[in-house]
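User: Let's play a game. I give you a shape written as tokens, and you guess the letters that built it. Ready? Here's round one.
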């Protein structure tokens, strides 16, 4: 069984950033990644200083090369189970874990960072998923500038979607709010109207695709309207099953520490609203805090026995000799 100082579960921006910090600190690091990044459908990522407009896949490829360049190991696969190896009641510094992958590969690690991201849950409207990340969009900070000054649509369905439409208005003065069954309040309608946002009632039946582009939106009472892009506010579902299975909850948003000694978490798994640059920063912060914890354990291991520990060890030896 392979042994590491740290197992990083998830090879996105948060996981690779954490791994880079740790391999540069001369730690033995394994990054286990299932190869299903959330932003895979997007052609470009925006708002990442010095990497604005870079393809998400290119960022990950560069990160993977940097981690392996310092001696880190990349493992393709899905982690199915993380099991503490320390006895119940052991000190925090005695934490250790077994990590089992879906192909039954097993490894041991002194510490674990969970950076498993999240999935976007979008309405079940025909055509919506096919255009996701292309001209059916979610984040105006990621995509708004690229579709600026074009006719834009916002899919309703919830009170939050009203706020989303008001936000999108910053990038275009031609915005249509498709209520999609949501009955907005008088105050909400007033706010939308004040910003020049049209409200179209009814249900969106399907997204019409022509060739390789969004061609229009079909309503239950009308033929078709044709925005250049449609913004959808998805339900953000963190991939936190491993944390839940361990009974671990984040106790420090700044460092990613959890309630279970030896486990850290970073990125969208614990902060669904984190963008790529934010997730990378969270991974770095978690790695620095984790490394300090490893240093403390290394110091404890190097110290000579205290008098009390020596007496306890002597008693054990005496008992063994008497048997």
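Assistant: Ready! My guess for every position:
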């Amino acid at each position: 069984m392979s042994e590491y100082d740290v197992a990083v579960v998830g090879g996105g921006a948060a996981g690779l950033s954490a791994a880079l910090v740790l391999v540069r600190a001369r730690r033995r690091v394994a990054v286990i990644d299932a190869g299903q990044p959330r932003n895979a459908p997007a052609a470009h990522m925006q708002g990442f200083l010095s990497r604005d407009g870079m393809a998400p896949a290119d960022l990950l490829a560069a990160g993977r090369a940097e981690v392996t360049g310092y001696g880190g190991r990349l493992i393709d696969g899905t982690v199915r189970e993380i099991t503490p190896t320390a006895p119940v009641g052991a000190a925090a510094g005695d934490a250790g874990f077994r990590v089992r992958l879906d192909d039954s590969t097993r490894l041991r690690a002194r510490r674990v960072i969970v950076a498993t991201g999240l999935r976007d849950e979008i309405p079940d409207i025909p055509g919506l998923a096919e255009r996701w990340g292309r001209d059916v969009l979610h984040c105006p900070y990621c995509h708004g500038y690229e579709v600026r000054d074009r006719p834009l649509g916002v899919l309703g369905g919830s009170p939050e979607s009203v706020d989303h439409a008001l936000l999108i208005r910053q990038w275009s003065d031609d915005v249509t709010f498709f209520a999609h069954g949501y009955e907005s309040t008088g105050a909400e309608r007033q706010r939308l109207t004040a910003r020049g946002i049209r409200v179209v009632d009814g249900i969106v039946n399907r997204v019409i695709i022509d060739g390789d582009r969004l061609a229009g939106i079909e309503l239950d009472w009308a033929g078709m309207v044709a925005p250049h892009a449609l913004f959808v506010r998805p339900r953000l579902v963190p991939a936190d099953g491993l944390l839940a299975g361990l009974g671990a909850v984040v106790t420090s948003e700044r460092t990613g520490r959890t309630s279970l000694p030896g486990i850290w978490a970073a990125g969208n798994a614990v902060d669904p609203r984190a963008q790529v640059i934010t997730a990378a920063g969270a991974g770095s912060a978690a790695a620095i805090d984790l490394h300090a914890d490893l240093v403390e354990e290394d110091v404890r291991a190097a110290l000579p026995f205290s008098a009390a520990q020596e007496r306890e060890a002597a008693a054990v030896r005496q008992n063994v000799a008497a048997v």
